[in-house]
């Protein structure tokens, strides 16, 4: 596999959300990934607070109308400190817990990546805060 050109720049990894404390839902920039055969997403939560804090992270692809996006993959809900990773490839999708190598159920649709994608980090709970970073890597080949 070779490095993907994301948004016109050859980069093995793109920072989707820089390490910081987030208290509201975050929607990433839109990434041009039409050459990708696989994307790898890493979510690293180093702190969580609030009453019943929840973090739901979605990979979305642009729909043919060029305006709307649809979920094509969702991480298992995160409620505390966690480091999770997901690889999205045609015919071989997987999600797994990085820190313990324990596989858990995630939701993925058998869908192509499309030309554009984005990441949504939906934060819920009462006064929630997640200190986290999200990285995206795309590969061709």
Record the SSE blueprint.
Blueprint: E1 2-3, E2 5-6, E3 9-10, E4 14-22, E5 26-27, E6 31-32, E7 38-62, E8 69-74, E9 82-89, E10 94-97, E11 107-108, E12 116-140
Antiparallel strand pairs: 1-12, 2-3, 4-12, 5-12, 6-12, 7-8, 7-9, 7-12, 8-11, 9-10
How would you describe this structure to a colleague?
- The chain is built from no helices and 12 strands.
- It has strands spanning 2-3, 5-6, 9-10, 14-22, 26-27, 31-32, 38-62, 69-74, 82-89, 94-97, 107-108, 116-140.
- A hairpin with a 6-residue loop joins strand 7 and strand 8 (69-74).
Write a concise keyword list for the protein shown above.
single chain, Jelly Rolls, two-stranded antiparallel ribbon
Tell me the structural class.
mainly beta
Strand content: over 45%
Average residue pLDDT = 78
Low-confidence stretches: 94-105
**Regarding CATH, which class?**
Mainly Beta
Distance between the termini: 4 Å
Question: Strand count, sense and closure of the main sheet?
Answer: 10 strands, antiparallel
Shape: globular
Number of H- or I-type helical stretches = 0
> What is Rg?
15 Å
Looking at CATH, which topology would you report?
Jelly Rolls
- The sequence of SSEs as H and E is EEEEEEEEEEEE
At CATH level 2, the architecture is Sandwich
Q: Total number of β-strand segments?
A: 12
How many domains? The number is 1
Estimated helix fraction: under 10%
């Amino acid at each position: 596999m070779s490095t993907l050109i994301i948004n016109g720049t050859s980069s093995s990894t793109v920072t989707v959300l820089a390490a910081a404390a987030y208290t509201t839902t975050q929607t990433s920039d839109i990434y041009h990934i039409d050459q990708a055969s696989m994307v790898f997403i890493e979510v690293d939560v180093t702190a969580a607070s609030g009453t019943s804090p929840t973090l739901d992270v979605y990979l979305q692809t642009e729909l043919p109308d060029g305006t709307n996006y649809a979920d094509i993959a969702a991480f298992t809900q995160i409620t505390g400190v966690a480091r999770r990773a997901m690889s999205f490839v045609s015919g071989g999708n997987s999600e797994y817990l990085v820190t313990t190598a324990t596989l858990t159920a995630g939701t993925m649709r058998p869908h192509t990546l499309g030309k554009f994608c984005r990441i949504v980090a939906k934060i819920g709970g009462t006064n929630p805060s997640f200190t986290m970073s999200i990285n995206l890597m795309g590969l061709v080949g």
